[in-house]
Design goal:
This protein is an alpha/beta fold. 29% of the residues lie in helices and 15% in strands. It has a single domain, classed as Cytidine Deaminase, domain 2 (3-Layer(aba) Sandwich). It contains five helices and five strands. Strands 2-1-3-4-5 form a five-stranded mixed beta sheet, sandwiched between helices. Strand 4, helix 4 and strand 5 form a beta-alpha-beta unit. Helix 3 packs parallel to helix 4. The radius of gyration is 20 Å and the shape is globular. It binds 2'-deoxy-5-(hydroxymethyl)cytidine 5'-(dihydrogen phosphate) and zinc ion. 2'-deoxy-5-(hydroxymethyl)cytidine 5'-(dihydrogen phosphate) (5HC) binds next to helix 2 and strand 3. Keywords: Hydrolase, Metal-binding, Nucleotide biosynthesis, Zinc. Its EC number is 3.5.4.12. It comes from Myripristis murdjan.
Length: 176
């Protein structure tokens, strides 16, 4: 091939030699959380937009999702309200969480051993899904509902299942 054909031709045909290795590439944890953040921007939730990116052991993306109403239910038909006279009139009975959508969108046979990058700490229901799907690691960004009962239950299950969860800021410092 033309790549490194001789001492003066680089991959793009420039004549720099020795070749210059780019050292300032995007670190992988930042890349995957970046994908999750981009997915979150697709959410129609007016108050909290969440994105999730599932990565396998080969560091390949195998699923991406964001919070939204179930397929075919119409983003503008069901309520996006946080509170109402009845819970039936709030979003909480209907919305699919980012983690659920990332799992359901998977393009691989299974998610065993995968890591999920999610922009908000998983709720108890999503942690059940992550555990049952075989996901082995959780990297999150925001933890704004840290003291909510659902989050307490979520951590309890992840702890028992031996699934570590790490704030991505810590991870980026540790790895990069
Ligand atoms: N990990 C999560 N993934 C998610 O997709 N969500 C979604 C459900 C709602 O659409 C929204 C939270 O709305 P709010 O209570 O902050 O207005 O984020 C919420 C959490 C946190 O439990
Ligand atoms: Zn959830």
């Amino acid at each position: 091939s033309k790549i490194w054909h001789n001492n003066t031709t680089t991959i793009h045909g420039a004549t720099d030699y020795p070749p210059i290795k780019r050292e300032d590439i995007l670190e992988s944890a930042q890349y995957f959380m970046g994908v999750a953040l981009l997915a979150a921007q697709r959410s129609r939730d007016p108050s909290t937009q969440v994105g999730a990116c599932i990565v396998n052991e080969e560091k390949k993306i195998v699923g991406v999702g964001y919070n939204g109403m179930p397929n075919g239910c119409g983003d503008d038909t069901l309520p996006w309200r946080r509170s109402g006279d009845s819970p039936v009139e709030t979003k909480y009975f209907y919305v699919c969480h980012a983690e659920l959508n990332a799992i359901m969108n998977k393009n691989s046979a299974d998610l065993k051993g995968c890591t999920i990058y999610v922009t908000l700490f998983p709720c108890n229901e999503c942690s059940k899904l992550l555990i049952q799907a075989g996901i082995k690691n959780v990297i999150y960004l925001s933890d704004k509902y840290h003291d909510d009962e659902k989050t307490v239950a979520s951590r309890r299950m992840l702890d028992l299942a031996g699934i570590p969860y790490q704030n991505s800021f810590v991870r980026m410092k540790a790895v990069g």
